[in-house]
Amino acid sequence: MKQLLLAATILFAVAAHAQRDKYNSAMLQALEKFDSSNTPADLESLAATFQRIGDAEKTQWLPYYWQGIALSRIGWMYFPEQAGAAALKTDDLDKTIADITGRVTAAADKADALATDSNAKSEILTLRNMVATQQMIVDPQSRYMTYGQQAADALQKAMQLNPNNPRVAYLQAMSVYGTPEQFGGGKDKAKPLVQKAVDLAKAEQVKPLYPHWSLEQSEKVLATYQ
Question: What's the domain range around 83?
Fold first, then answer.
């Protein structure tokens, strides 16, 4: 009987290891496609891949997090930061962004239900910040008091959960950067926050499959001060 139990335990361990290897391989392959995914169609395909991985795995929050990131990148294409870059066109910006952010929120909800530690939940809150920010900039004048506050609240909670999260620091810096000086923001006010985001990203011990996307973005913003 003991031999049978030992054999069953070994088989279970081998099967679990094989499943873990399959998950890691699928995630790595999908993450490698981020840099070459530059169109809405590419990002939709990538988001669908992460969703399939998450649905198959059922216990991992990271696939749904990355699904949300892929979808949020589509949303940002309607509000390009780069000077001279053309925004995606839509007949109804409000409806388009509402659809995208609704899907990001759904992915964040799935990730949140599976996340078990504060660092993971801090990362998920960056998705919620981006959802609120994109909703706000559809019409900043009329939406700042609602979506602007939601965006700020998400960042505050994310910072409380992990004060050393460089992506939270980057989003906080960009929030101040984009806020008019008369409302307490502006480029000069954001500079120390941008520097903090760079420093935190450089000091971060990156884990496989985990978020690590803020360093390049922070350094690009810091370069505008030189």
Answer: 32-139
